[in-house]
Fold:
Amino acid sequence: MKLTGAQIIIECLLEQGVDTVFGYPGGSVLNIYDALYEYQDKVRHILTAHEQGACHAADGYARSSGKTGVVIATSGPGATNLVTGLATAYMDSVPLVAITGNVALPLLGLDSFQEVDITGVTMPITKHNYIVKDVKDLADTLREAFLIASTGRKGPVLVDIPKDITAAVYDYAPKKPEHPAPTCAAAKEDLEKAAAMIREAKRPFIYTGGGVVASGADKEVRAFVDLIDGPVASSLMGQGGFDNTDPRYIGMLGMHGTKTSSLAVGKCDLFIGIGTRFSDRVVCDIKTFAPQAKVLQIDIDPAEINKNIKVSHKLIGDVALVLQKLNALLSPSKHPEWMAEIMEDKKQYPLIQTADDPEAVLPQYVLETLDELTGGDAILTTEVGQHQMWAAQFYNFKHPRQLVTSGGLGTMGYGLGASLGAQVANPDKLVINVAGDGSFHMNCNELVTAAKYNIPIVELLFNNNVLGMVRQWQRLFYGKRFSQTTLDRGTDYVKLAEAYGIPGYTISKKSDVRPVLQKALEHKCPVLINCIIDKDINVLPMVPAGASVAEPILNIEIDD
Amino acid sequence: MADKENLHVLSVLVEDGSGVLGRIMGLFSRRGYSIQSVSAAQTEEPGISRMTIVAQCTEDTLEQIDKQLSKLIPVKEVTLLDELNSVRREHVLVKAGSSEDTRRGLIDVANLFQAKVVDVGQENLMLELTGQPRTIDAFIRLVKPYGIQKLVRTGITALERG
Structure:
C-alpha cells in the first residue's frame, strides 16, 4: 500500500508493538505529528514541557517495563534537547529509539533554519544512529533501529528524518519484528572452567550489575546464589536484580556501599561480577580492589572484559542464558564459616542515620516508612545526589526494574521525567520520584505534564536547601568552603505544586512522615511532598575518590 | 612489557554509509587512542570499504581498540596485521630540488630507490615512490638535503599474506 513517510513511521512503530510515545512537535516533524493525529487511537502521544523531559520519560518507560522507549523531537533545538537524555540512556544501556525531524534534503548542510547535524552530535552517545535520505530506506531503517536498541547490550538509537522524506509517498508492507534469541558465546570449556573456579572457592562473593536487570536474569541469579552460598552485593544499576530482603544480600558495593560489602571484597577469594562493567564508582582504587580474589566476569559485552580491571576468567553472553548453563554444571555447596563472618559484619555495620533531635526528619526513616507503606513494591525513580543514594540504600528493592535512576551519567533532572514514563508504563504501580531540591529545580517544568495527563506520581522532595552531595565533598576535601552549593532559594514548593493543580504537603518533623506519606499515596493524582531535612546529613559510608573500597569513611564530624 | 607502546596495524572492513569514517575516528578520539595514519577506500565488493589504521598503543589498548571497533554497527571485521604475516606498503609524493645543481643529485637518489619523476616544473621535480614504510622513511631522509617543498604520504595500506 502507498503511504507517506510519516505514515510509514507510525506503521513501523505499530509493528514493534509501540503504543506510547513521548515528544514535542515542531516544524520539521509536522508531517509526523499529522500522522500521529490520524493514528491517535493506536498510538498515545505524551506531550512534555521540554524535549529533555520527553527523552527521560521514554527512558523511564523503557527501564521500568523492559520495552523500548520512543521519543520524537523536531530538528535543531528539539534534537539537541535530547542530548542529555540520550547520553543518560547510553551510559546505562537503555533501549530507546529517538526519532528526530530534520530540514528537507535540499536544505541540509546550508545552515538552514533549525538545522543541526544531530547524527554528528549524537554519534558518541548513541549505540548507533541514522539519517534517512531516501524514503525507500525508511521502514527498514526504523526496524533496524529497534533491533539494535533492544538486542545485545541495549542502548539508544537515533533516526534523523528530513521533512521531505516524511512527505514522500512509498510502498509500505508490514513486517513482523525480529526477536533474535539471546546468545551465549561462552563455550563448554569456558563454563566448565568457571564452574571449577566456583567449586574451588572458599569465600565466593557475588556482585550483580545492571546487566542482571537488562537480561531479566533475577531467577537465574537467585538459583546461582542458592547453589554456591555466598554474599551478594549490588551496584546501583543492579538494584532489584537480587532481593534486598534476602539474608545473603549485603547492600551496595562501591563509593556509597556498605562496610560489609567493602570488607567482603577485601576478604573474598573469588569475585563473581555478573552483568557489570566495573565502574570507577564501584572499583574505587583499582590496585587495592579484591586483592585476594580471582575475578570471574559474566557479561554480554566483550569490550567490558579487561577494560577497567583485569579478570581471571570471563563468560561472554546474555547473563540469564550464561547462568542457566553455568548453574547446570554446579552442585549445591555451603560456606558456613564465610557466611557466618559476613553475618557478623552485617550485624556490626548496619546502615544507620541518627540525630540528636528526636523530631528530626531523617531520610532513612522516610524511605523505610515509604517501603513499609508501599509493601516494598513501588517503583522509585530518582534524581541525582544524596537523595539518590539514600533511596538506593534504604528502600528494599525486591524485583528488577523497581529502581529507575541515572547511574552512569549521573543526570540531575532525570527523575521527574523518568517517573512519568515509569508511571505510564506501569499504571497499576505506585511510582515515587525521590528528588532533592537542587535536581528538582533543573526540570520541575515536567510537573505540568504530570498534571495535564493526571499521571499520579508522588514527587518526594528532600529539601535541604543545599546541593548536598557537592557540599559533602566540600566539607571533606575543600575545607568547608561551600562554594555555590547553598541554595536557600526560598521556593514555596507547595504553592508551586498548587499552581499546577497538584496537591502539595510538607513534612517538617518526624511525626509528619507517616501521615503525610499515607495521604500522598492514597491520591489518584500527582502529589508533591516537600520533605524538609537538615543540610548536613551525609551519605555514608563513603569511599573518597582514589581510595581503596575496603576503607570507607563511616562518620563525618559536623563541627560548624 | 604490556604497557609498552608500539605501532599496530589494523585492517577494518566497513559498510559504506553516511559518517562511517567520522564514527570510527570519533571512537579513537573520544577514547583517547592515538592514530598514526589512516587510509580508506572501496574494496572489490560494492558498498564495502577497507580501512587500514595504524595505532600507537599498548597491547591492552590494542585489545580495547579491537573490541570497541567491533561494536560499531557498520564495522564488519577487524583484523590485526602483524609485520611477518602481512604486506605493508605506503606511497609518497614529494616536490623537491629547486635549482639545476640540486636536481642531478636528486635524480640519483630517485634512481637509487627506483622512484619515478612524475612532474618536472620550473621550481622543482615531483617524485613518487611506493614501498615499505621504512623505505619511504629512508627515501625522504635522502631527499631532504635537496630541499623538500611539499610532501604527502598516504599512510600504510596492508593486506595479510596467503
The first strand of chain B starts at residue 6 and ends at 15. The interface with chain A takes residues 18-19, 22-23, 26-27, 30, 60, 63-64, 67-68, 70-73 of chain B (CB under 8 Å). The mean pLDDT of chain B is 94.
